[in-house]
Amino acid sequence: MPLFRRRPPEFAMPTGTLPCAESHCANQTAVACAYRDRRGRNCAIAFCPQHWTLVGGVVYCRRHAGTIAALGSAAATNGSLPELGNRGPSLVNWVAGAIDDGVVGLLERVARVGETVKTETAVTVIFDAKRRRRWERSWKLIENTGINLKVAVEVAADADDALIDARVGSCVVARGVPPWIARRRAGVDVSAQVDEEQRRLFSQFFLDNIATEVAQQRAEDFADRRA
Ligand SMILES: [Zn+2]
Ligand SMILES: [Zn+2]
Questions:
Q1: Are 136 and 214 in the same domain?
Q2: Distance 43 CA to ligand 1 centre (A)
Q3: 62 CA to middle of ligand 1, Å?
Q4: Do 78 and 63 sit in the same domain of this protein?
Q5: Which ligand is nearest to the CA of 30?
Q6: Which three-class secondary structure state does DSSP give residue 46?
Q7: Ligand found nearest the CA of 76
Q8: Is residue 1 domain-resident?
């Protein structure tokens, strides 16, 4: 038995000495955002404890906390994080989260005996046949023989980072810029109530188009099986 036990390490909230970048905040306790993109560039915008966001105990600015939350903490350490200004993964995550219940319900309704719904909760990077990167979150109808149907929300890595696509199989069925981004680009301000309604309409538009294409592909699939 050791005579002296070492004191266990105690959790200490990070605290900094930098001025906070939030407008109207006078705190001098800010810590720089830990985000480092795939090109090795640091975000370095500093926020105080009231205005930063912690993900896995690490300080991020709000934008990059959204990216880390979308990609999962593992992405932060493997040097594959998107460019500093890229919102693609967090926007994909928002759209996917907004339609998640709807897509799962839809796939459960069309599932045949032996098929189950598999939901991907993290945004992942995908390379297409031409080695172009895109970020996607997906839902699949799977059977022991493989994937029978795939629904994805995605954004291209080298194009407009807010132009979100919904895909059923290989077919793009809906495309759009989330309403608050579209408004910011147009310099339009709206009430919280209008904002909420626009977000709802945007999600519904994606969901409706996905539902139409899923029904179509299932009908074709059914006809093929009978032929
Ligand atoms: Zn602050
Ligand atoms: Zn940041």
A1: yes
A2: 16
A3: 12
A4: yes
A5: 1
A6: strand
A7: 2
A8: no
Pairwise CA distance, residues 74 & 80, whole Å: 10
Ion ligand 2 neighbours (CB, 5 A) are 33, 35, 43, 61, 64
Q: Distance (Å, rounded) from C-alpha 22 to C-alpha 8?
A: 35
Complex confidence, ipTM: 0.97
End-to-end CA distance of the chain: give it in Å, rounded: 76
pLDDT tens for the chain, 227 residues: list them: 556 677 887 776 667 899 999 999 999 999 999 999 989 999 989 999 999 999 888 999 999 999 999 998 777 777 788 999 999 999 999 999 999 999 999 999 999 999 999 999 999 988 888 888 899 999 999 999 999 999 999 999 888 999 999 999 999 999 999 999 999 999 999 999 999 999 999 999 999 999 999 999 999 988 888 87
Both tokens of 137, joined, read: 């979150």
Quick one: which ligand is closest to 22's CA? Answer: 1
